[in-house]
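REVIEWER CHECKLIST
Item 1: Sequence provided? yes
Item 2: Single chain? yes
Item 3: Sequence as submitted:
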Amino acid sequence: MEMTVEPNDIDDGRTVRLERPAPHIALVTLNRPAARNAVNAAVAEQLGAIVASLDADPEVRAVVLTGAGDRAFCAGADLKVIAAGGIDDLFVAPGGFAGFVHARRRKPWIAAINGDALAGGLEIALACDILLAVDTARFGLPEVTRGLAASAGGLFRLPRAIPRGAALEMIATGRLIPAHEALALHLVTRLTSTATLLGVALDLANQIASNAPLAVEESLAVARAAYDASESDLDRLSQAAQQRLMGTADFYEGAQAFVDKRSPKWLGR
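Item 4: Structure as written out by the authors:
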């Protein structure tokens, strides 16, 4: 059943908000709506710390990442910070830009793109596992129009996410594409209205959270490596993941629940 949630437009002074809207689900909100949720040092520090804390929390099984307001998911790096010579402050170890794009994560992250996802904002979205968007959103890597490169993952993740020619055109021209084109290119998996975006994203997170958490984590770890390893290496990773799962209580719970004709009770171990 789809959850209904009001658009997340609170500006309470925190640059990144963390909420627990349902069991096993976390909602993370970039909260600088007046600055189109652009990344400054505070966002990078707070988002990096939140990523680490959620990945270590056994109660969390899925995370939704969105932006405050209805103008932008994230406009990328705060150009005022860059102009003042503070670009290094936007990179936080070990996650890199925004403390996020290269962070090690086992939990699934869903990007609920509530508006424009541009430059580093698109790079943050590309680092997530599943992208949903409002039908008014725009997407792009306009770094070349400002003498920059999309060095926070965009230059290699976008060609992996959409057809190569379309990605190279976006990178070289800095052109922004509308939401319907992003859907046609399979950059996002579905479009929604602003009013329903968070409900759809949280419903999807709930579907993920209803599955065996270790099985989801092991499966995603292999799937994320699909572009980085040979088929034989990926097969070995898959078999190793299955062997680890066979040693867990949840492996037997899944089979027993099927026999008993009941919903499984996952322990995460």
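Item 5: Key structural point noted by reviewer: The chain has two domains: 16-209, 213-260.
Item 6: Recommendation: ____
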